[in-house]
Amino acid sequence: MKNVRKLGLMTILFWMFLSVQAFAADLEPPMISLEKEQRVFTSGEVISFHVKNPEELKIVLVNEHGQRKLLDGETYTVTDWDLDGNYQAEFYQADISKPVVTVEDLFEVKQLEEVAKDETAPSLKMIEITHDEDVLPTSVLYASAELDDAESGVKQAILLVHSKSNESEMELIRNNYTGEFDAEIPLEKFQLGEELTFQLQLVDFAENEITLDLENTIQLYEPKAPVLSYDGSDITNVQKKIGQVGNRIELTLDKYTTEFPELETENGKTIPLLWQKTATEWKGSLALTTELSGEIIHIQEMNQYMLVRATSEPFGDIQLINNSILTGTIHPDFTFISNLYVEVNGQNFPIKRTDNSFTSAEITTTGKITLHWTDWDGQVFSKQMNQEIKPVIEMPDKETIAPPSVIPKEKESLLTSPDPKPSVESHENTPKKQEKKETSTKNKSSSIPFWIPALMIIGVIIFSGNRAMK
How many whole angstroms separate alpha carbon 87 and alpha carbon 105? Predict the structure, then answer.
Protein backbone atom coordinates (compact mmCIF):
# COMPACT_ATOMS: atom_id res chain seq x y z
CA MET A 1 0.00 0.00 0.00
CA LYS A 2 2.83 2.34 0.85
CA ASN A 3 4.54 1.52 -2.44
CA VAL A 4 1.39 2.42 -4.33
CA ARG A 5 1.24 5.77 -2.60
CA LYS A 6 4.89 6.45 -3.38
CA LEU A 7 4.33 5.56 -7.00
CA GLY A 8 1.35 7.92 -7.23
CA LEU A 9 3.31 10.76 -5.63
CA MET A 10 6.22 10.24 -8.00
CA THR A 11 3.84 10.31 -10.97
CA ILE A 12 2.32 13.61 -9.85
CA LEU A 13 5.75 15.17 -9.36
CA PHE A 14 6.87 13.95 -12.80
CA TRP A 15 3.93 15.52 -14.58
CA MET A 16 4.35 18.74 -12.62
CA PHE A 17 7.97 18.88 -13.76
CA LEU A 18 6.96 18.36 -17.37
CA SER A 19 4.29 21.07 -17.09
CA VAL A 20 6.79 23.57 -15.70
CA GLN A 21 9.20 22.81 -18.52
CA ALA A 22 6.48 23.23 -21.12
CA PHE A 23 5.34 26.50 -19.52
CA ALA A 24 8.93 27.73 -19.46
CA ALA A 25 9.25 26.89 -23.12
CA ASP A 26 6.07 28.86 -23.90
CA LEU A 27 7.44 31.89 -22.00
CA GLU A 28 10.53 32.13 -24.17
CA PRO A 29 11.20 35.88 -24.51
CA PRO A 30 10.62 37.58 -27.89
CA MET A 31 13.68 38.24 -29.97
CA ILE A 32 14.69 40.22 -33.07
CA SER A 33 17.86 40.08 -35.14
CA LEU A 34 19.14 41.05 -38.57
CA GLU A 35 18.63 38.58 -41.38
CA LYS A 36 21.96 39.57 -42.92
CA GLU A 37 25.34 40.54 -41.56
CA GLN A 38 25.06 44.16 -42.75
CA ARG A 39 24.70 46.57 -39.76
CA VAL A 40 25.01 50.02 -41.32
CA PHE A 41 22.25 51.35 -43.52
CA THR A 42 21.48 54.56 -45.37
CA SER A 43 18.41 56.24 -46.81
CA GLY A 44 16.44 54.04 -49.16
CA GLU A 45 17.86 50.73 -47.97
CA VAL A 46 15.60 47.98 -46.64
CA ILE A 47 16.44 46.25 -43.38
CA SER A 48 15.19 42.68 -42.95
CA PHE A 49 14.72 41.18 -39.49
CA HIS A 50 14.26 37.75 -38.01
CA VAL A 51 11.50 38.18 -35.43
CA LYS A 52 10.25 35.89 -32.66
CA ASN A 53 7.16 37.53 -31.22
CA PRO A 54 4.70 34.86 -30.04
CA GLU A 55 2.66 37.30 -27.92
CA GLU A 56 2.40 39.81 -30.78
CA LEU A 57 3.97 42.63 -28.83
CA LYS A 58 4.48 46.02 -30.43
CA ILE A 59 8.02 46.54 -31.74
CA VAL A 60 9.42 50.07 -31.84
CA LEU A 61 12.75 51.03 -33.39
CA VAL A 62 14.41 53.76 -31.32
CA ASN A 63 17.60 55.70 -32.01
CA GLU A 64 19.83 57.54 -29.60
CA HIS A 65 18.12 60.87 -30.41
CA GLY A 66 14.72 59.58 -29.35
CA GLN A 67 13.25 59.03 -32.80
CA ARG A 68 10.75 56.19 -32.72
CA LYS A 69 9.44 54.21 -35.68
CA LEU A 70 6.89 51.44 -35.37
CA LEU A 71 8.07 48.17 -37.03
CA ASP A 72 5.13 46.78 -38.95
CA GLY A 73 6.15 43.31 -40.14
CA GLU A 74 9.75 42.13 -40.53
CA THR A 75 11.23 44.86 -42.73
CA TYR A 76 11.95 48.58 -42.40
CA THR A 77 12.98 51.09 -45.09
CA VAL A 78 15.37 53.83 -44.00
CA THR A 79 14.10 57.35 -44.87
CA ASP A 80 15.80 60.70 -45.41
CA TRP A 81 14.58 61.83 -42.01
CA ASP A 82 16.06 58.96 -39.98
CA LEU A 83 18.86 60.49 -37.96
CA ASP A 84 22.33 59.03 -37.83
CA GLY A 85 23.15 56.74 -34.93
CA ASN A 86 22.59 53.36 -33.36
CA TYR A 87 19.09 51.89 -33.19
CA GLN A 88 17.59 49.41 -30.76
CA ALA A 89 14.34 47.46 -30.72
CA GLU A 90 11.86 47.69 -27.84
CA PHE A 91 8.94 45.29 -27.28
CA TYR A 92 5.86 46.79 -25.65
CA GLN A 93 2.87 45.18 -24.02
CA ALA A 94 -0.51 46.86 -23.59
CA ASP A 95 -0.95 48.95 -20.44
CA ILE A 96 2.77 48.75 -19.61
CA SER A 97 4.73 51.93 -20.22
CA LYS A 98 8.19 50.41 -20.09
CA PRO A 99 9.48 47.90 -22.69
CA VAL A 100 9.16 44.23 -21.85
CA VAL A 101 12.26 43.35 -23.86
CA THR A 102 14.99 45.59 -25.28
CA VAL A 103 17.49 44.54 -27.95
CA GLU A 104 20.33 47.07 -28.08
CA ASP A 105 22.67 47.94 -30.97
CA LEU A 106 20.46 46.27 -33.50
CA PHE A 107 21.69 48.35 -36.45
CA GLU A 108 23.14 51.75 -37.40
CA VAL A 109 21.97 54.48 -39.77
CA LYS A 110 24.49 56.67 -41.53
CA GLN A 111 23.30 59.05 -44.18
CA LEU A 112 25.97 59.14 -46.88
CA GLU A 113 24.47 61.87 -49.07
CA GLU A 114 22.56 65.07 -48.42
CA VAL A 115 18.96 64.18 -47.67
CA ALA A 116 15.69 66.11 -47.97
CA LYS A 117 15.00 68.54 -45.16
CA ASP A 118 11.87 68.21 -43.05
CA GLU A 119 10.10 71.57 -43.16
CA THR A 120 6.62 70.43 -42.14
CA ALA A 121 5.45 70.94 -38.56
CA PRO A 122 3.57 68.16 -36.80
CA SER A 123 -0.23 68.14 -36.96
CA LEU A 124 -3.02 67.14 -34.61
CA LYS A 125 -5.45 64.46 -35.66
CA MET A 126 -7.50 64.28 -32.48
CA ILE A 127 -7.27 65.16 -28.82
CA GLU A 128 -9.55 64.10 -25.99
CA ILE A 129 -9.54 65.62 -22.52
CA THR A 130 -11.56 63.69 -19.97
CA HIS A 131 -12.37 64.41 -16.35
CA ASP A 132 -14.68 63.60 -13.48
CA GLU A 133 -18.23 64.91 -13.52
CA ASP A 134 -17.29 67.64 -11.05
CA VAL A 135 -13.89 69.18 -11.77
CA LEU A 136 -12.20 70.32 -8.57
CA PRO A 137 -8.72 71.73 -7.84
CA THR A 138 -7.96 68.27 -6.47
CA SER A 139 -9.04 66.67 -9.74
CA VAL A 140 -6.81 65.44 -12.57
CA LEU A 141 -7.47 65.86 -16.29
CA TYR A 142 -6.63 63.01 -18.66
CA ALA A 143 -5.44 64.07 -22.12
CA SER A 144 -4.86 61.74 -25.07
CA ALA A 145 -3.81 63.01 -28.51
CA GLU A 146 -3.24 61.44 -31.91
CA LEU A 147 -0.43 63.34 -33.60
CA ASP A 148 0.96 63.05 -37.10
CA ASP A 149 4.41 63.74 -38.49
CA ALA A 150 5.19 61.41 -41.37
CA GLU A 151 8.70 62.77 -41.78
CA SER A 152 11.00 63.19 -38.80
CA GLY A 153 8.33 62.41 -36.23
CA VAL A 154 7.00 64.21 -33.15
CA LYS A 155 9.72 65.00 -30.68
CA GLN A 156 7.68 66.81 -28.02
CA ALA A 157 4.05 67.62 -27.27
CA ILE A 158 3.16 70.05 -24.48
CA LEU A 159 -0.39 70.83 -23.34
CA LEU A 160 -0.80 74.42 -22.09
CA VAL A 161 -3.64 75.13 -19.65
CA HIS A 162 -4.88 78.70 -19.07
CA SER A 163 -7.29 80.39 -16.68
CA LYS A 164 -7.81 83.94 -15.40
CA SER A 165 -5.79 83.28 -12.27
CA ASN A 166 -3.01 80.98 -13.46
CA GLU A 167 -1.57 78.74 -16.14
CA SER A 168 0.10 75.37 -16.28
CA GLU A 169 1.80 73.09 -18.78
CA MET A 170 2.27 69.35 -18.99
CA GLU A 171 4.23 67.27 -21.49
CA LEU A 172 2.33 64.51 -23.23
CA ILE A 173 4.25 61.23 -23.28
CA ARG A 174 4.05 58.83 -26.19
CA ASN A 175 2.26 55.57 -25.49
CA ASN A 176 4.49 53.18 -27.40
CA TYR A 177 1.79 50.54 -27.59
CA THR A 178 -0.97 52.75 -29.05
CA GLY A 179 1.23 55.45 -30.56
CA GLU A 180 -0.86 58.17 -28.88
CA PHE A 181 0.45 60.91 -26.59
CA ASP A 182 -1.02 60.88 -23.08
CA ALA A 183 -0.78 62.99 -19.94
CA GLU A 184 -2.37 63.55 -16.55
CA ILE A 185 -2.78 67.22 -15.67
CA PRO A 186 -3.22 68.20 -11.99
CA LEU A 187 -5.31 71.30 -11.30
CA GLU A 188 -4.09 72.45 -7.89
CA LYS A 189 -3.00 75.81 -9.36
CA PHE A 190 -6.53 76.69 -10.41
CA GLN A 191 -9.52 77.97 -8.49
CA LEU A 192 -13.08 76.77 -8.18
CA GLY A 193 -15.47 78.22 -10.72
CA GLU A 194 -12.77 79.08 -13.29
CA GLU A 195 -12.95 78.16 -16.95
CA LEU A 196 -9.93 76.40 -18.45
CA THR A 197 -8.76 76.83 -22.04
CA PHE A 198 -6.03 74.83 -23.81
CA GLN A 199 -3.22 75.07 -26.34
CA LEU A 200 -1.05 72.29 -27.77
CA GLN A 201 2.59 72.96 -28.59
CA LEU A 202 4.23 70.47 -30.99
CA VAL A 203 7.90 70.10 -31.99
CA ASP A 204 9.41 67.53 -34.40
CA PHE A 205 12.97 66.22 -34.70
CA ALA A 206 13.72 68.79 -37.39
CA GLU A 207 12.86 71.48 -34.78
CA ASN A 208 9.72 72.54 -36.59
CA GLU A 209 7.37 74.02 -33.99
CA ILE A 210 3.67 74.87 -33.96
CA THR A 211 1.19 75.99 -31.26
CA LEU A 212 -2.44 75.06 -31.78
CA ASP A 213 -5.43 76.71 -30.06
CA LEU A 214 -7.78 73.95 -28.96
CA GLU A 215 -11.54 74.25 -28.88
CA ASN A 216 -11.70 72.28 -25.66
CA THR A 217 -12.88 74.20 -22.58
CA ILE A 218 -13.53 72.89 -19.09
CA GLN A 219 -15.45 74.59 -16.29
CA LEU A 220 -14.17 73.95 -12.81
CA TYR A 221 -16.83 73.10 -10.27
CA GLU A 222 -18.68 76.12 -8.93
CA PRO A 223 -19.39 75.39 -5.27
CA LYS A 224 -22.72 76.38 -3.83
CA ALA A 225 -22.54 79.49 -1.69
CA PRO A 226 -23.50 79.00 1.97
CA VAL A 227 -27.20 79.59 2.64
CA LEU A 228 -28.38 80.61 6.11
CA SER A 229 -32.07 80.26 6.88
CA TYR A 230 -34.23 81.00 9.91
CA ASP A 231 -37.56 79.31 10.48
CA GLY A 232 -37.58 78.24 6.82
CA SER A 233 -36.79 81.69 5.37
CA ASP A 234 -33.52 82.62 3.68
CA ILE A 235 -31.63 85.27 5.68
CA THR A 236 -28.27 84.92 3.91
CA ASN A 237 -28.27 88.58 2.87
CA VAL A 238 -29.67 89.89 6.17
CA GLN A 239 -26.90 91.25 8.38
CA LYS A 240 -29.07 91.53 11.52
CA LYS A 241 -31.99 89.30 12.42
CA ILE A 242 -34.20 88.89 15.49
CA GLY A 243 -34.72 85.24 16.44
CA GLN A 244 -37.24 83.71 18.82
CA VAL A 245 -36.52 80.86 21.19
CA GLY A 246 -37.93 77.61 19.82
CA ASN A 247 -37.32 78.40 16.16
CA ARG A 248 -34.47 76.81 14.17
CA ILE A 249 -31.58 78.15 12.15
CA GLU A 250 -30.14 76.08 9.31
CA LEU A 251 -26.87 76.40 7.39
CA THR A 252 -26.53 74.74 3.97
CA LEU A 253 -23.02 74.14 2.58
CA ASP A 254 -21.63 72.66 -0.62
CA LYS A 255 -21.32 68.88 -0.84
CA TYR A 256 -17.53 69.12 -1.16
CA THR A 257 -17.01 71.32 1.86
CA THR A 258 -14.36 70.22 4.33
CA GLU A 259 -14.86 72.88 7.00
CA PHE A 260 -17.93 72.96 9.22
CA PRO A 261 -18.36 76.23 11.15
CA GLU A 262 -19.98 76.45 14.57
CA LEU A 263 -22.34 78.90 16.22
CA GLU A 264 -20.54 81.49 18.33
CA THR A 265 -21.74 84.00 20.94
CA GLU A 266 -20.23 87.43 21.58
CA ASN A 267 -18.39 86.15 24.64
CA GLY A 268 -16.65 83.44 22.58
CA LYS A 269 -18.78 80.45 23.49
CA THR A 270 -19.15 78.00 20.57
CA ILE A 271 -22.06 75.65 19.91
CA PRO A 272 -21.76 72.93 17.20
CA LEU A 273 -24.51 72.47 14.64
CA LEU A 274 -26.09 69.11 13.90
CA TRP A 275 -24.79 68.12 10.45
CA GLN A 276 -26.36 65.81 7.88
CA LYS A 277 -25.12 65.07 4.35
CA THR A 278 -27.29 64.56 1.29
CA ALA A 279 -26.32 63.77 -2.29
CA THR A 280 -26.00 67.45 -3.12
CA GLU A 281 -25.20 69.35 0.09
CA TRP A 282 -24.41 69.47 3.80
CA LYS A 283 -27.05 70.77 6.21
CA GLY A 284 -26.34 71.96 9.74
CA SER A 285 -29.16 72.99 12.08
CA LEU A 286 -29.75 74.19 15.62
CA ALA A 287 -32.86 75.01 17.69
CA LEU A 288 -32.66 78.30 19.61
CA THR A 289 -32.89 77.59 23.34
CA THR A 290 -33.74 79.79 26.31
CA GLU A 291 -30.06 79.71 27.31
CA LEU A 292 -29.38 81.89 24.27
CA SER A 293 -32.05 84.45 25.18
CA GLY A 294 -30.59 87.95 25.02
CA GLU A 295 -27.43 86.74 23.26
CA ILE A 296 -26.12 87.96 19.91
CA ILE A 297 -24.95 84.92 17.95
CA HIS A 298 -23.35 84.34 14.54
CA ILE A 299 -21.94 81.55 12.39
CA GLN A 300 -18.14 81.48 12.32
CA GLU A 301 -16.64 83.08 9.19
CA MET A 302 -20.03 84.62 8.29
CA ASN A 303 -21.28 88.21 8.64
CA GLN A 304 -24.87 87.51 9.66
CA TYR A 305 -25.77 88.19 13.30
CA MET A 306 -28.86 87.19 15.25
CA LEU A 307 -30.30 88.50 18.53
CA VAL A 308 -32.19 85.74 20.33
CA ARG A 309 -35.31 86.62 22.33
CA ALA A 310 -37.65 84.62 24.50
CA THR A 311 -40.51 87.14 24.27
CA SER A 312 -41.97 89.45 21.67
CA GLU A 313 -43.23 92.05 24.21
CA PRO A 314 -40.61 94.75 24.87
CA PHE A 315 -42.15 96.55 27.87
CA GLY A 316 -43.48 95.71 31.30
CA ASP A 317 -45.02 97.47 34.33
CA ILE A 318 -45.95 100.67 32.49
CA GLN A 319 -47.57 103.36 34.65
CA LEU A 320 -48.83 106.91 34.12
CA ILE A 321 -47.89 109.16 37.02
CA ASN A 322 -49.84 112.36 37.81
CA ASN A 323 -51.50 112.17 34.43
CA SER A 324 -48.30 113.55 32.85
CA ILE A 325 -45.28 111.20 33.18
CA LEU A 326 -45.00 107.69 31.69
CA THR A 327 -42.72 105.17 33.40
CA GLY A 328 -42.00 101.51 32.84
CA THR A 329 -39.46 98.73 32.44
CA ILE A 330 -37.76 97.20 29.39
CA HIS A 331 -37.43 93.43 29.22
CA PRO A 332 -33.79 92.21 29.17
CA ASP A 333 -34.27 90.75 25.67
CA PHE A 334 -34.94 94.28 24.41
CA THR A 335 -31.95 96.02 26.00
CA PHE A 336 -30.60 96.93 22.56
CA ILE A 337 -33.60 99.02 21.44
CA SER A 338 -32.92 102.73 20.90
CA ASN A 339 -34.57 106.06 20.01
CA LEU A 340 -37.37 105.50 22.53
CA TYR A 341 -39.84 108.38 22.83
CA VAL A 342 -43.52 109.14 23.59
CA GLU A 343 -46.00 110.64 21.17
CA VAL A 344 -49.24 112.25 22.40
CA ASN A 345 -51.59 114.18 20.17
CA GLY A 346 -48.89 114.63 17.51
CA GLN A 347 -46.29 115.94 19.99
CA ASN A 348 -43.11 113.99 20.84
CA PHE A 349 -41.67 113.80 24.36
CA PRO A 350 -38.21 112.35 25.10
CA ILE A 351 -37.60 109.39 27.39
CA LYS A 352 -34.72 108.92 29.80
CA ARG A 353 -33.45 105.34 30.29
CA THR A 354 -31.78 103.99 33.40
CA ASP A 355 -30.64 100.37 33.01
CA ASN A 356 -33.85 98.52 32.13
CA SER A 357 -36.30 101.23 33.23
CA PHE A 358 -37.43 104.44 31.57
CA THR A 359 -39.15 107.71 32.48
CA SER A 360 -40.66 110.16 30.05
CA ALA A 361 -40.49 113.91 30.19
CA GLU A 362 -43.61 115.71 31.46
CA ILE A 363 -46.36 115.36 28.90
CA THR A 364 -48.08 118.72 28.45
CA THR A 365 -50.90 117.74 26.15
CA THR A 366 -53.82 115.36 26.25
CA GLY A 367 -54.65 112.29 24.23
CA LYS A 368 -53.69 108.68 23.69
CA ILE A 369 -50.10 107.64 24.36
CA THR A 370 -47.98 105.94 21.68
CA LEU A 371 -44.47 104.59 22.30
CA HIS A 372 -41.95 104.64 19.43
CA TRP A 373 -38.57 102.84 19.29
CA THR A 374 -35.92 101.51 16.90
CA ASP A 375 -35.06 97.83 17.30
CA TRP A 376 -31.57 96.29 17.20
CA ASP A 377 -32.00 95.24 13.58
CA GLY A 378 -32.85 98.79 12.48
CA GLN A 379 -36.61 98.33 12.17
CA VAL A 380 -38.82 101.09 13.61
CA PHE A 381 -41.81 100.11 15.75
CA SER A 382 -44.65 101.88 17.56
CA LYS A 383 -47.21 100.71 20.09
CA GLN A 384 -50.31 102.49 21.37
CA MET A 385 -50.55 102.14 25.14
CA ASN A 386 -53.62 101.66 27.29
CA GLN A 387 -52.72 104.79 29.24
CA GLU A 388 -54.17 108.13 28.12
CA ILE A 389 -53.53 111.72 29.18
CA LYS A 390 -56.97 113.10 30.15
CA PRO A 391 -57.92 116.80 30.45
CA VAL A 392 -58.29 118.30 33.98
CA ILE A 393 -61.84 119.78 34.61
CA GLU A 394 -61.89 122.56 37.34
CA MET A 395 -65.09 123.16 39.47
CA PRO A 396 -66.70 126.66 38.82
CA ASP A 397 -67.01 129.32 41.66
CA LYS A 398 -70.41 129.78 43.49
CA GLU A 399 -72.59 132.60 42.04
CA THR A 400 -75.48 134.79 43.51
CA ILE A 401 -78.58 134.58 41.42
CA ALA A 402 -80.15 138.11 41.08
CA PRO A 403 -83.94 138.66 40.91
CA PRO A 404 -85.34 139.63 37.57
CA SER A 405 -84.97 143.35 36.86
CA VAL A 406 -87.97 145.68 36.70
CA ILE A 407 -88.34 147.50 33.42
CA PRO A 408 -89.76 151.07 33.99
CA LYS A 409 -92.42 152.69 31.85
CA GLU A 410 -91.53 155.37 29.37
CA LYS A 411 -92.75 158.25 31.60
CA GLU A 412 -90.79 156.99 34.51
CA SER A 413 -87.70 156.72 32.38
CA LEU A 414 -87.86 160.52 31.92
CA LEU A 415 -87.03 160.93 35.61
CA THR A 416 -84.01 158.74 35.41
CA SER A 417 -80.65 159.08 33.86
CA PRO A 418 -79.64 156.70 31.05
CA ASP A 419 -77.87 153.50 31.88
CA PRO A 420 -74.12 153.52 31.43
CA LYS A 421 -72.87 151.68 28.33
CA PRO A 422 -71.45 148.27 29.04
CA SER A 423 -67.68 148.10 28.92
CA VAL A 424 -66.07 146.43 25.87
CA GLU A 425 -63.87 143.43 26.62
CA SER A 426 -60.23 144.13 25.98
CA HIS A 427 -59.35 140.55 25.12
CA GLU A 428 -61.31 138.58 22.57
CA ASN A 429 -60.18 135.25 23.92
CA THR A 430 -61.35 135.81 27.53
CA PRO A 431 -62.59 132.45 28.80
CA LYS A 432 -66.35 131.94 29.09
CA LYS A 433 -65.90 131.24 32.75
CA GLN A 434 -64.53 134.75 33.30
CA GLU A 435 -67.38 136.32 31.27
CA LYS A 436 -69.89 134.51 33.42
CA LYS A 437 -68.32 135.82 36.62
CA GLU A 438 -68.30 139.45 35.34
CA THR A 439 -71.95 139.21 34.28
CA SER A 440 -72.84 137.94 37.73
CA THR A 441 -71.08 140.87 39.34
CA LYS A 442 -72.93 143.40 37.19
CA ASN A 443 -76.25 141.80 38.08
CA LYS A 444 -75.46 142.14 41.77
CA SER A 445 -74.71 145.86 41.50
CA SER A 446 -77.90 146.65 39.52
CA SER A 447 -80.35 144.43 41.39
CA ILE A 448 -82.17 147.68 42.89
CA PRO A 449 -82.79 150.22 40.12
CA PHE A 450 -81.55 153.71 40.98
CA TRP A 451 -84.90 155.37 40.13
CA ILE A 452 -86.90 153.50 42.79
CA PRO A 453 -85.57 155.65 45.69
CA ALA A 454 -86.39 158.83 43.70
CA LEU A 455 -89.98 157.70 43.26
CA MET A 456 -90.21 156.97 46.94
CA ILE A 457 -89.00 160.49 47.80
CA ILE A 458 -91.49 162.10 45.36
CA GLY A 459 -94.31 160.02 46.83
CA VAL A 460 -93.44 161.14 50.37
CA ILE A 461 -93.47 164.79 49.29
CA ILE A 462 -96.87 164.48 47.56
CA PHE A 463 -98.30 162.61 50.51
CA SER A 464 -97.09 165.32 52.95
CA GLY A 465 -98.57 168.13 50.78
CA ASN A 466 -102.00 166.52 50.67
CA ARG A 467 -102.15 166.24 54.43
CA ALA A 468 -101.16 169.93 54.82
CA MET A 469 -103.95 171.03 52.52
CA LYS A 470 -106.48 169.21 54.58
Answer: 6
CATH of domain 31-109: 2.60.40.1930
Q: What is the predicted pLDDT for the residue at 432? A: 41
Amino acid, single-letter form, for residue 453? P
123-219 CATH choice from 2.60.120.260, 3.40.640.10, 2.60.40.1930, 3.40.50.300:
2.60.40.1930
Q: What pLDDT score was predicted for residue 9?
A: 58
Identical fold for domains 31-109 and 315-389, yes or no, is: yes
Fold adopted by 315-389: Immunoglobulin-like (2.60.40)
CB 207 within 8 A of CB 153: no
Distance of alpha carbon 68 from alpha carbon 88, whole angstroms: 10
Considering the chain, what is the average pLDDT of its residues? Answer: 84
Say whether pLDDT at 415 is over 70: no
Q: What is the CA radius of gyration of the chain?
A: 57
Calculate mean pLDDT across residues 368-380: 96
For the domain made up of 227-309, give the CATH fold: Immunoglobulin-like (2.60.40)
Residue 321 near residue 360, CB atoms below 8 Å? no
Going from N- to C-terminal start, the domains of the chain cover 31-109, 123-219, 227-309, 315-389
Residue 14 has pLDDT above 70, yes or no: no
Between CA 90 and CA 100 the distance in angstroms is 7
Instruction: Let me know: does 377 contact 242? Beta carbons within 8 Å.
Output: yes
Residues sharing a CB contact under 8 Å with residue 389, sequence separation 6 or more, in sequence order: 320, 323, 324, 344, 345, 363, 365, 366, 367, 368, 369
pLDDT, average across residues 296-324: 93
Among 46-60, 118-132, 134-148, 394-408, name the one with the lowest average pLDDT: 394-408
Question: Is the per-residue pLDDT at 143 higher than 70?
Answer: yes
Q: How confident is the model at residue 23 (pLDDT cuts 50, 70, 90)?
A: very low
pLDDT at 364 (0 to 100)? 93
- 83 pLDDT above the threshold of 80: yes
